[in-house]
Design a protein that fits this description.
248 residues, Udp-n-acetylmuramoylalanyl-d-glutamate--2,6- Diaminopimelate Ligase, Chain: A, domain 1, five-stranded mixed sheet, 10 helices, elongated
Length: 248
């Protein structure tokens, strides 16, 4: 598949023009024209780039790419090394941030819900990035945390009342602790995101709504895998997901 054909398809299907984002979405670094092998991952770290080189990949497809708002624009240190790896091996870098979080079919939030057995009932928050719905596990917040930890294969952190009965769950993957109050206003009995801030603990106790930090990386592994499978099924591209472990 030609690089530009893949770029145009992804940009349109993920509706990148809909979003106000902190980085450019789409083709961030241009490589060879023909794309047959794609390495997928959460973040375009050096370890993922090295895996792409070892696999003789034509492209890397990630959720967290480069050129974030507020970044130092100088190409030095690790930035030089990363770009040198891509350019030196003529590898394309495709990155989709908020569009991959929000997509209704293969997005991080929808895929996380599927992994946890949750049902999407609605959206909330800025740009409708937050999701709210129901779960199939009868019990308390502590019971829900145990189920989440089992399914994600890692420990989570919960603040707030572990004995609260939970019917309505709200979530937004990654670093979306700032949506906590919006989730509460939307009617959530508990809210899950990837990370936690100092003030989150106070909000959980004062509102009486538990908060679960399940891991930024852990909650955002599934969208890019689903996107890679979609490309493989639709276009016959060889897409391989490489998980670079991250405890955060």
């Amino acid at each position: 598949m030609h690089r530009n054909e893949l770029r145009d398809y992804l940009n349109e299907w993920l509706e990148i023009e809909r979003f106000r984002d902190y980085c450019p979405n789409g083709l961030q670094v241009e490589g060879r024209e023909e794309v047959r092998k794609v390495i997928c991952g959460v973040t375009a770290s050096q370890a993922l780039l090295d895996a792409a080189v070892a696999a003789n990949a034509d492209a890397v497809l990630v959720h967290h790419g480069y050129f974030w708002k507020g970044d130092d624009a100088r190409i030095a240190g690790i930035r030089k090394r990363r770009l040198a790896t891509l350019l030196g091996h003529d590898i394309n870098l495709f990155a989709y941030h908020l569009p991959l979080d929000a997509h209704p079919l293969i997005g991080n939030n929808v895929q996380l819900a599927a992994m946890l057995g949750w049902t999407v009932g609605g959206r909330f928050g800025d740009q409708n990035m937050g999701f709210i719905g129901t779960h199939s596990l009868a019990g308390t917040a502590a019971d829900l945390l145990t189920d989440i930890e089992t399914k994600l294969g890692r420990s989570g952190l919960m603040v707030g009342d572990p004995t609260r009965k939970v019917t309505q769950v709200a979530w937004c993957t990654g670093g979306a602790q700032g949506y906590f109050e919006a989730a509460i206003n939307a009617g959530a009995d508990i809210y899950l995101s990837g990370e936690i801030s100092e003030q989150t603990t106070h909000l959980a106790h004062e509102y009486g709504v538990p908060y679960i930090a399940a891991g930024h990386h852990a909650t955002e592994r599934y969208g890019v895998q689903a996107l890679g499978k979609h490309l493989a099924d639709r276009f016959g591209i060889d897409c391989e997901y490489v998980d670079i472990d991250n405890p955060v």
